[in-house]
Amino acid sequence: MKLSLFISFFFILIALSQITTASSWSRKLYDKFHFLFKNKFRFRSKPESNGKLCALLVAGSNGWYNYRHQADVAHAYHVLKSHGVHENDIIVMMFDDIANSKSNPFPGKLYNNPNGNDVYEGIKINYKGRSVSPDNFVAVLKGDKTKVHGGNGRVIDCGENDRVFIYFTDHGGVGLIAFPEGILSTKQLNDALDYMHENKKYGELVFYLEACESGSMFEGVLKDNKKIYAITAANGHESSWGTYCDNKWNLPCLGDLFSTNWMEDSDKEELTTETLETQFEIVRKETNLSHVIQFGDLSIAKEPVANFQGEPSSQHRRHKWKIGTVRNIDNVEDSEDDDDNDDDSDDVQKVSWPSRDIKLNHLKLQLDRTNSKLKASELAAEIEDIKDERREIKKVFFDLVSELADTKEEAVEIVNKRTAVLRVHCHHKLVHLFNLHCVNFSRHDYALKYTHILNNLCTYYGEEELILLKEVKAYCDKLDN
Ligand SMILES: *[C@@H]1O[C@H](CO)[C@@H](O)[C@H](O)[C@H]1NC(C)=O
Ligand SMILES: *[C@@H]1O[C@H](CO)[C@@H](O)[C@H](O)[C@H]1NC(C)=O
User: Fold this and answer.
1) Is the pLDDT reported for residue 40 higher than 70?
2) CA–CA dist 240, 419 (Å, integer)
């Protein structure tokens, strides 16, 4: 009896120990599979690279002082083409008023780097002038030919096994990007991306976005389950920067800082081995005046840049695109050594200015440099006009807030607070209403600086969106434009 009790106790012990070993075994097995599983995604055999690549490049501005946006897009076109992307797979939207502008000392040419090639050469533009519109941009994204007005009607024609690359550069504000005429809200952009996802218009999509406060276009809105990976030039609360602003030709800034950083990287790296994540890290480090941020499905960033900027073999390169020798600016020792050998004209210093101050700073620089009294007084008058315009714009926003806020403390908060776009629908309605009835953002891009106030008003009014819209409309109607 005692013995059988002892034996059964013994067996229970064994059984217990089996269970614990089994569970540690299963844990190990799980870890092993989990590891393999994770790595399958980390080093995935890129099934999408069998599909094709569709690219959309957009410069959302016009006007001489916005030279850089069209130079950026023209450069991006050559980055893709020189990596083997066929011109039929690239859609370009740019107003095209810069290369042949009367102000251009190099008619028919655009430069994105003081030592670079003419980037305008050979570019095929699909949407020019007024056809560079928010509606056409959305129609092109959705692949909806019936909604396109003007341009040559081309839309993104990709499917669920394909990759889409979008690069957009222009002015922006909190939760919106601008076009030569009109604006696009974060709601409109993300609705279009959702539509593309639901209707299998891509397998994976990569979006590079240069604009002030560009992070606000995706922050809290772009989910990580849409197979979209986005990089923005700035976070949601800061300016992005133009660069090559003090150049030997006295041209307005030739490029944007984030944009030239990614393109100069793509020009010199082997894109079949460099991953998007590496490019992001390099560009983030070099873009040291704003915060470059990534959003969405970060697993896509493990893929080679070539999947989105060129065919996966550099053997396919038709010609070697040489943008010019760019001094390795992150290696200070080297550049000091080089100084003796370098001719001044080869010195590519990235002098960068906040996007919204470019025209003003450019005029101030011309004023410093001119010897002509007449020219100086013209420049001084132009500078005064800009300052007056700024004062007026600021007053429109501040008066609006003091009219709508209940207390002084609330007014101060609405003017200063910085948040993501929390009420996406209200924000969308309000920025469009404001653009239509208060200040035309396309004509006064400086007003974009205060769009966080509109965003804050939506948060402040909460559910009372309709009341807010009515009150802002009434306020705007009182202004004499
Ligand atoms: C940013 O980087 C550039 C080039 O490396 C350097 O000249 C500049 O001083 C840096 N600016 C800041 C604010 O760190
Ligand atoms: C805003 O300005 C642009 C550019 O001058 C113009 O084409 C557009 O019609 C204006 N929009 C409104 C609503 O006045």
Assistant:
1) no
2) 17
